[in-house]
């Protein structure tokens, strides 16, 4: 979210029809984080030493059709060669996303709109070098009536492009694992991996299974997950109860795959991951509201991200140092 948009939320005029409430930032920006070396390593040792399976595999899993797709994708993924960067090259992770922002009017009625974003992250071959993050200004994607249009226009006026630069990927003082993940410490055995995810997300989200699938979606959407971990994540998703095929032909950013998801009845939402089972490609993820919310009708994808990765020889020059 741009600095201008944050300033608007803090200083919005008192006679505005919209109350000065916080508009949610693009969701889950802090949940890209992988496990710490100690946390994941200690958990793996404990699981192996005690021969305890934990929750994974004990309470069922995905239905047969979804499990078959995930297993096929997991197998195909192992045939993929991870990109190898030459010195001076960058892994370009391009994310096309749509997020919802909402607020409340003086009458207490909530209103929302959808905003599209394009982010380009340049990860250097030497991970200690400067990472570059191009965050293009958000654009109004969809509105839902006059109040929604007014709210969207208000925030749109404060959008601008941002070019950021940070050594080792430490944007805003964070750890590089917030973006690139601490992947070496994660188990590749799918049941141990799912147990590790359950432990990492303990107490978060509407339910343990909902949060586990969200964690998997968040991790996959970084675009930097190695093939053997992607394969394990697909198999871990197949061990989550309630996971089904939610759409046979799901398209994000022009690419079509199969949507695998799970309905969470406590908040009437559905989390999907969209994959190509033929080559194991992770196409993207989305969250769908199953009831009307803030003027958005049931079935609206309130958030979605599509991810592509390529190798490039250059990154944009300049940028604000963080």
Tell me what the structure shows:
The structure is a single chain. The protein has 322 residues and is an alpha+beta fold. The protein has one domain (3-321). It has eight helices and eleven strands. Strand 2 and strand 3 form a beta hairpin. Helix 6 crosses helix 8 and helix 7 packs antiparallel against helix 8 (227-238). The protein is globular, with a radius of gyration of 20 Å. The model is unreliable at 1-53 (pLDDT under 50).
Condensed summary:
This protein has 322 residues and is an alpha+beta fold. The protein has one domain.
Secondary structure elements and pairings:
Elements: H1 3-11, H2 37-50, H3 64-77, E1 90-104, E2 110-124, E3 130-135, E4 139-143, H4 146-156, E5 162-167, H5 177-180, H6 190-200, H7 208-220, H8 227-238, E6 244-252, E7 255-264, E8 269-276, E9 281-289, E10 301-312, E11 320-321
The parts where pLDDT drops under 50 for at least 5 residues are: 1-53
Give the CA-based shape.
globular
- What's the number of helices? 8
Q: SSE string, helix = H, strand = E?
A: HHHEEEEHEHHHHEEEEEE
Cα end-to-end separation: 15 Å
How much beta, percentage-wise? 25-35%
Mean of residue pLDDT? 83
Supply the key terms.
alpha+beta; 11-stranded mixed β-sheet; disordered N terminus
């Amino acid at each position: 979210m741009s600095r201008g948009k944050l300033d608007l939320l803090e200083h919005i005029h008192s006679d505005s029809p919209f109350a000065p409430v916080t508009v949610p930032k693009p969701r889950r920006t802090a949940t890209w984080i992988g496990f710490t070396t100690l946390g994941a390593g200690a958990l793996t040792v404990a699981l192996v030493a005690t021969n305890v399976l934990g929750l994974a595999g004990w309470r069922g899993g995905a239905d047969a059709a979804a499990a078959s797709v995930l297993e096929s994708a997991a197998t195909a993924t192992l045939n993929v060669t991870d990109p190898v960067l030459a010195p001076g090259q960058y892994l370009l992770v391009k994310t096309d996303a749509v997020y919802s922002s909402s607020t409340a009017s003086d009458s207490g009625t909530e209103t929302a709109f959808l905003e599209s974003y394009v982010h380009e992250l340049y990860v250097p071959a030497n991970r200690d070098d400067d990472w570059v993050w191009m965050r293009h200004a958000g654009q109004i994607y969809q509105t839902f009536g006059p109040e929604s249009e007014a709210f969207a226009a208000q925030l749109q006026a404060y959008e601008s492009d941002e070019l950021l630069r940070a050594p080792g990927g430490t944007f805003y003082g964070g750890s590089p694992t917030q973006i690139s993940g601490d992947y070496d410490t994660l188990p590749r055995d799918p049941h141990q991996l799912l147990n590790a995810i359950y432990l990492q997300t303990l107490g978060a989200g509407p339910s343990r299974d909902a949060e586990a699938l969200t964690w998997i979606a968040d991790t996959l959407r970084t675009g930097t997950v190695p093939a053997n971990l992607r394969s394990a994540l697909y198999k871990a998703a197949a061990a989550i109860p309630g996971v089904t095929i939610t759409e046979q032909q799901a398209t994000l950013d022009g690419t079509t795959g199969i949507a695998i998801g799970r309905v969470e009845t406590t908040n009437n939402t559905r989390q999907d991951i969209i994959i190509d089972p033929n080559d194991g490609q992770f196409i993207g993820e989305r969250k769908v509201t199953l009831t009307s919310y803030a003027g958005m009708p049931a079935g609206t994808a309130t958030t979605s991200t599509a991810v592509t990765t390529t190798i490039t020889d250059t990154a944009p020059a300049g940028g604000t140092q963080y």
